[in-house]
Amino acid sequence: MASSSMTTRVMKEDGECRSWAELPSELTLSILSRLDTIDILENAQKVCTSWHRVCKDPAMWRKIVIPRDIGDLVYDLKYVAMCRHAVDRSQGGLVEIDIWYIGTDSLLNYIADSSSSLRRLRLGVCSSVTTDGIIEALVKLPSLEELEVPRCRLMVDFLKVVGQSCPNLKTLKLYCEAFMRPRFVYDDFALAIAETMPGLQFLQLVGDLLSDIGVSAILDNCPNLEHLDLRLCFNIKFAGDLEKQCSERIKVLRRPEDSFHDYPYEISFYDTDASEDYYPEDDYFEVPSDHFDYDPYDIDDGPFLDGGFSYMHL
Q1: Can you give the pTM of this predicted structure?
Q2: What's the N-to-C CA distance of the chain in angstroms?
Q3: What are the strands, taking DSSP E only, across 40-182?
Q4: Which tens digit of pLDDT belongs to each residue from 85-95?
Q5: CA 104 to CA 127: how far, in whole Å?
Q6: The F-box domain covers which part of the protein (predicted)?
Q7: Are the CB atoms for 114 and 92 separated by under 8 Å?
Q8: Residue whose C-alpha is closest to residue 105's, from 65, 132, 72, 66
Q9: How do beta strands 227-229 and 252-254 pair?
């Protein structure tokens, strides 16, 4: 953004140049909303006064994205502050949030307390979020339709809470970051899903320990299921009528041996003895709630690139 004349001009159909700032606010909002949260707060809102005004509109913040390309920055409080500020700007209208790395129990519950209408929640590699923290948040999100969380930290009781607290849930993705070839069968997760989530349409259980019994229970109790991802679930044999059931019921079936080249998470493969406590608990890092009294992203004055203001208020 070296020159405002380069960043704030657009060519009209008749060849005449006009300012980006002259675009209707609805069109500007539609364009800027395609940026992730960091780009909006660090760049877009500082371009000109009209863009800044649009970026303050709660309609801009129906979706919040903290992207994965920030790297593993769970200790970088700047991004946590950005996420909180974006939630504040939504004024309760947040519908979708996609967070990579920076999630903590306090941040997750801050989101839930402010966004009871949230419909989609994705926690990508948020190693500081605990099972109890997720449960505490989910009971406040009755409108949730899509949930994506790590499988390795979950318990059967967690899945039951999800089913009971989120009756509109249509998509459940339990992602896997560490995999070892199964030495035992564990259908309890699958049975909990079958018992409490009858409205599911999309289910991802990559690397799970379920068997044919668990798959059958899910098919019997989730009549709307259309997409079933069972990659790396090597306890499943599709014996008896299960193969036919899946073929007739499921529109998109990812089998245990299918490629996971399109899987968004890196998986570490291990070949050690398995046991029921095979997922160790990590030491979690929690951010003090009073850390966020200072908000550097609540910019009401410039400087903007169009020269609208010359003073930055922090």
Answers
A1: 0.79
A2: 22
A3: 63-66, 96-100, 120-124, 146-150, 171-175, 178-180
A4: 999 999 999 99
A5: 8
A6: 17-64
A7: yes
A8: 132
A9: parallel
